Every structure is written in C-alpha cells, then in structure tokens.
Amino acid sequence: MNYDHILIRYGELSLKGKNRTHFEKVLRDNIKQVLKPFPMLKIERTFGRMIIELHGEQVEPIVDRLQHVFGIQSFSLAVKVENTLEAIQEGALRALHDRGSVSTFKVTARRPFKNFPVDSQKLNHLVGGYLLKNTSNITVDVHHPEVEVKVEVRETATYITCGAIEGPGGLPVGTGGKVALMLSGGIDSPVAAYLAMKRGVKLHAVHFHSPPFTNERAKQKVKDLTKILTKYGGTIHLHLVPFTDLQKAIHEKVPSNYAMTIMRRMMLRITEQIANEQNALAIATGESLGQVASQTLHSMNTINEVTTLPVIRPLVTMDKLEVISIAQKIGTYETSILPFEDCCTIFLPPQSKTRPKREQAQKFEANFDYQSYITEAVANTEMIKVTAQPQQENKEIEELF
Ligand code: ATP
Ligand code: MG
To answer: For an engineered disulfide with 307, which of 252, 272, 360, 385 has Cβ 3.0 to 4.6 Å away?
Structure first.
C-alpha cells in the first residue's frame, strides 16, 4: 500500500471559537481511544483537519474503527509528499495505483500555501499529464470522473487523496454532557443509546434485573450490548440495579392493572437518583409512541410525572421496523433477540392499563413505603466500567469494581 496517512474531516461549520476547540479536543481523544491497539500511529491536528500518520500499521481495522467515531464527517487515505512538483507527480501516481483499476479521473489541486511556485490550474495539468503518461487505459473526465485525485499543497507538505470514506457524522461523544440511559436487553434501548451518543452525549447505562428470576445470562446479554455500544462512544458505565424486592412489593401491594405503570415509575425514580449521582442531566429511554401499553401518551404522561429531569426518547416517532433496521446496522440486533427473561416480563399481568391516571398511580403508591425499597436498590447497585478494548482487558477492569 502506498498510502501513509489518513486525513479526517469533521465539518460542523456552526462551531466557533471555544466550542470548536473543545469539539476538536474531544474528537481527538475519542479517536485516540479507539486506535489504542495501534501504538505506532501519530495523530495530529492541523488546518481544521486531523491527520493520522500510519507508520506502516494495517489500514483496514483503522478504517473500520474510524467509521464508528461520531463527529467524523469523512476521511481519506492520503499520500504525503514534500512540496516539489516531482514529488507531487510521483505521489499522485502512487495514490492512484492504490485505487486499483480505474478508467477515468480528474485532478483537483488546491494551493493554500501560496508560495508554492505552480498555481492550481497549472498543477492540475502537470499532474494530470504525468498520470496519463505513466498509466494505460485511463482517460480524463472532468465532469464525472471515477476518481478525483485531490492535491492539497500546505506550507509543510502536500497531501494527495483519491476519494473519501463516509464517517458517521454527529457530534463527538462527550461534547454534549451525560445522560442516564435505561438499557433493557431488548431491541429498542440499544438503538436509543446509539442515537443519543450520535448527538454527543456520554452514557451511563442503567439496567434493572431481578435475580433469581432473571439469570446470569440475561445480565451477560446486557453487558454484551453495552460492549457493542462502546464501539461508538468509548467507555460506558453500566449500573445494574437489583429490582427483585421492589417488584415483589409492587406485586403484593398494587392492583395488577397498575403494576406496570408503578413499576415504570419506580424505575424512573431510581434512574433519576443514579443520574443525579453521576451528574447526568437527562434520562434516555427506548420508548416509541404507541408501541405497547406502557408507551401510549397516557402512560408516558403518568410515568413521566415522577421525574423533573428531561426524558429523551430518540425513537419516539419510529416504527418498529425502522428501529430493527438501525439495530442491524449497528450490530446490536443479534444480541438483543437472544431469548432471556427481562425483569419487566416477570410478575407482570398480561393486561396493563393503556390509560393509567396520575391520581390513581399516586393512590396505589401510598399503599407501601416504596422509598425505602428505592434507597435499598440504589445502595446495592453494581457499577461496571465497560471499555472499548478487547474482552480480556475488560475483565481485569471489571474485577477492580
Ligand atoms: P426495549 O426493546 O428497549 O426493551 P421495549 O419495546 O421492550 O423496549 P418496554 O419493555 O416497554 O419496551 O421498555 C421501554 C423502555 O424502558 C426501554 O426501551 C428501556 O429504555 C426501559 N426499560 C425496560 N426494561 C428495562 C430494564 N430491565 N432495565 C432498564 N431499562 C428498561
Ligand atoms: Mg423490553
């Protein structure tokens, strides 16, 4: 391979001044994080781009990782040469060779470094002519070229690229504050997590489990989902909340048609408490309007009453099929559909009220001292730090907690 650099573009024109510096710093840290397994790489920030020097590292796994880093608009493999016409011509030929068989091309030269003696127009001709002379079965097409050979003459060096790879867009995770995301083992909440991270928030995942009614494998499933999500946002703290006692109490004290509503209210109260402890400014869920009884507008209204934190629902307008297609794309679907008991499905009656009322919920909650159950559940919550690094390393870290 002839490419020796990767040039990263991150757009976001609206970002100015201090915000931009912060954005760039976080993005660079996130890129460094995912590229940790490649110690030879050097990452540099220049002229509103980021440049990675490959130092002979394999490019495919790096490309794969960069495609998951939010905030990256696009990136290109690049050849870096010194600022002489000969070096540029020869570098352009090497870059084009790496594209394999190509039938049409055009050269687009830019010269931000005005002291370079050849202007862009002339450079287009001189580089284009050189490429034609040194290749066969290839012609110039200025309107619809198969490959655009971009030459960018900077003060310190010239970068040559032949095409760009799309990044995931969005904002760098960590630029938008923290959110406590309610993560079940289902299809929806991992997708909600992905979309929340896309807008730059750092996640604390909160999962409710009810041992012994839910087993180790269900817990492992949630850890695995969290692990997959770290590909997009780096380290995620997973809070595992023991929910058995509270669920039993609800089962005993609350009429069965309100059990689900009250259970959700309890989950939200606990999540709010964890959010406050972690300085998270909002709660996120995988709810979608009207999908099931607990997600009608009436239900949301009654459940949402218990928290003053904003509740973000990235999937609120989506159909199930749209959610599934994202789940497949981001790689959570196969794990989500594994058939393990969720804490929500045990104890609960098959029929729940689709129009629960706030007053009724408050009345049933007055039947028992739920606050002490909440305090107990929060106190016994286990926190696991899940990192983007390979499984083995992660285990060691987990053991520290
Ligand atoms: P999902 O596919 O995310 O499980 P769902 O379609 O099964 O969603 P519900 O079971 O009604 O819908 O859950 C709605 C939302 O409540 C979930 O998206 C998730 O954010 C939260 N939630 C449900 N169960 C749990 C749980 N055991 N732990 C944490 N959050 C949960
Ligand atoms: Mg579910």
So the answer is: 272
Among 3.30.2130.30, 3.40.50.720, 3.10.290.30, 3.20.20.140, what is the CATH number of 5-169? 3.30.2130.30
Q: Which residues contact 22 (CB under 8 A, 6 or more apart)?
A: 175
Assigned CATH topology for domain 178-386? Rossmann fold (3.40.50)
Burial 162-189 (b: 16+ CB within 10 A, else e): beeeebbebbbbbbbebbbbbbbbbbbb
Domain extent listing, the chain: 5-169, 178-386
Cα–Cα distance for residue pair 320/187, rounded to 1 Å: 9
pTM of the model: 0.89
**Amino acid letter, residue 303:** I
- Dihedral, CA atoms, 323, 324, 328, 330, nearest 10 degrees? 20
Write the DSSP symbol of residue 199: B
CA of 80 to the centre of ligand 1 (A): 49
Q: Which atom of ligand 1 is nearest to the CA of 294?
A: 11
Can you tell me the distance from the alpha carbon of 119 to that of 148, in angstroms, rounded to the nearest whole number? 18
Q: Beta partners for 385?
A: 237
- The rounded Å distance from CA 100 to ligand 2 centre is 47
Mean pLDDT of 258-263: 94
pLDDT in tens, 103-123: 999 999 999 999 999 999 999
**Which of ligand 1's atoms lies nearest the C-alpha of 206?**
29
Ligand nearest to the CA of 260: 1
Predicted pLDDT at 344: 66
pLDDT digits (tens, 9 = 90+) for 25-50: 999 999 998 898 898 899 988 877 89
Of 282-291, 312-321, 382-391, the one with minimum mean pLDDT is: 382-391
CA 287–ligand 2 middle distance (angstroms): 9
Distance 264 CA to ligand 1 centre (A): 9
Cβ–Cβ under 8 Å, residues 80 and 124: no
The CA distances from residue 291 to 78, 344, 356, in Å, are: 47, 15, 16
Any ligand 1 atom below 6 A from CB of 344: yes
Candidate of 182, 215, 226 to mutate for ligand 1, largest count of ligand atoms within 8 Å of Cβ: 182
